[in-house]
Amino acid sequence: MDDTIAAISTPPGEGGIGIVRLSGEDAVRIVEEIFQSKSGKTLSELPSHTISYGHITSDGEIIDEVLVTVMRAPRTYTREDIVEINCHGGIVPLRCVLRLVIHKGARLAEPGEFTKRAYLNGRIDLTQAEAVADVIRAKTDTSCKAALAQLHGQLAEKVECLAQKMQDMLIQVEASIDFVTEGVVPPSCEILRREVLNLIEEIDELRATADIGLILREGLRMSIIGRPNVGKSTLFNVLLGKERVIVTPIPGTTRDVVEEMVDIGGIPVRMADTAGLMRDSADLIEKEGTKRSLECLSRADLIIAVIDGSEPLTEGDKCLLQDLSESRAITIINKCDLLVCVERAQVEKICGRDGILMVSAVQGTGVSELKEKIASTVWNGDAGPRGEPIVTNLRHLNALQKASESLKRATEGLGKMGEEILAFNLKEALSNLGEIVGKVTNEDILNGIFSQFCIGK
Ligand SMILES: Nc1nc2c(ncn2[C@@H]2O[C@H](COP(=O)(O)OP(=O)(O)OP(=O)(O)O)[C@@H](O)[C@H]2O)c(=O)[nH]1
Ligand SMILES: [Mg+2]
Question: What is the tens place of the pLDDT at every residue in 284-312?
């Protein structure tokens, strides 16, 4: 934390501009040594949060024409002095400038180290630091909105509010333990129990938001499944909006699982096309393809089962529909542009659910209905997140679960084991909540979080 870090903060490759960023006590001094401003003013003379035009030079030679931004602590991303050098966006000028600042005393930043400093210097809490990476990685508007809400402290506020309630209870309970001889009467068991149960309910409500939240952050795993030649790959391409996978009239065209990310109604969907199921095949490749399709099926959050409507139902179709009756699945009857010989009611009966969709993947009919159905299945019939705090991160969900369990233990001990056990479990639950915002943490947790960042953020 005492040294000055530097990194290229823009993605590798060619671009209009590229930024080398420095943070730390020596940031201004280091850049001053290699920067010549057009105005003749040194960086130290410039007011904070201003931009200066000039050149980066080395041994009298111009390395690049740049704009340099100086931002002095504490009103910066890291709460340290920050200097950003806006270079031309090619890898050569950026590397040259980075090499120069390292030569003048900066250290190459580790992944996420700027954000780690923002957290360690108290500008943001851990949920906000994690949200920075989530905003960068967001694949849909809805995911980005959820990450931005977390970045603005929505989740942290909710967690702090829960922690405050626990803290207030703990004060009451500890007072009755410490001052029992002075006649401080402990709150009644019934009142305490009710308060703890209310807290558990609030935590469990927050945990329930993770059903949607985790999907927004990680993506929904959706597998398109069915017997050969029913139109799985055609549907995959039409949902993706490009001819990504091979489609032919020959059964067994797709041999492997192919995954792509697609935005369906704001949901980031990891969509998988699979090989047609040929459970009884003796062919080595077909057997392996079927095995992989079934593995993909078992991992999926949502299954799209495809039936060919132009042919009578086969034993393979029936078997698949029955197998999926307990799963989160949407069944479609494809090739509806042809003469349809499969009855919707018959399919509904076999798979034990209604709402079977009639689709023509080649003509695109029924595809928007399918997208709507996917979205409404994920949002459980809602229109999507409604602006309340949501849990998008498994780390937060696990900590909330531990807090809920600690509180449940507190209610079990109430009345039997006295106030000490309640106080102990309340402290446990408080510490679980502290892990979420980063009040309680250790180096391993921090390394795990920040190592997932890109360099320069
Ligand atoms: N008429 C009609 N033909 C379709 C439709 N969807 C797919 N097909 C045709 O059906 C054939 C098989 O399509 P694919 O998308 O390759 O089928 P698949 O299920 O991926 O087949 P495998 O990879 O072999 O398991 C191709 O000739 C497609 O053009 C549809 O909606 N209507
Ligand atoms: Mg295919």
Answer: 999 999 999 999 999 999 999 999 999 99
For CA atoms 218, 219, 220, 221, the dihedral sign is negative
Q: What sign does the dihedral 322-325-328-329 (CA atoms) show? A: positive
Residues 6+ apart with CB under 8 A from 95: 8
Q: Tell whether the model's pLDDT for residue 263 goes beyond 90.
A: yes
Q: Which ligand is nearest to the CA of 278?
A: 1
CATH 3.30.1360.120 domain residues, the chain? 5-109
CATH 1.20.120.430 domain locations along the chain: 129-209+391-450
Architecture, CATH, for domain 5-109: 2-Layer Sandwich (3.30)
Q: Is 366 in the pocket of ligand 1 (CB under 6 A)?
A: no
User: What stretch(es) of the chain map to CATH 3.40.50.300?
Assistant: 216-378
Task: Compute the distance from residue 209 Cα to the ligand 2 centre, in Å.
Answer: 35
Reply yes or no on domain 216-378 having CATH 3.90.800.10. no
Using one digit for the tens of pLDDT, what is the confidence trace for 30-58?
999 999 999 999 999 999 999 999 999 99
Span from the CA of 233 to the centroid of ligand 1 (angstroms):
7
231 lines ligand 1 (CB under 6 A): yes
CATH for the stretch 129-209+391-450: 1.20.120.430
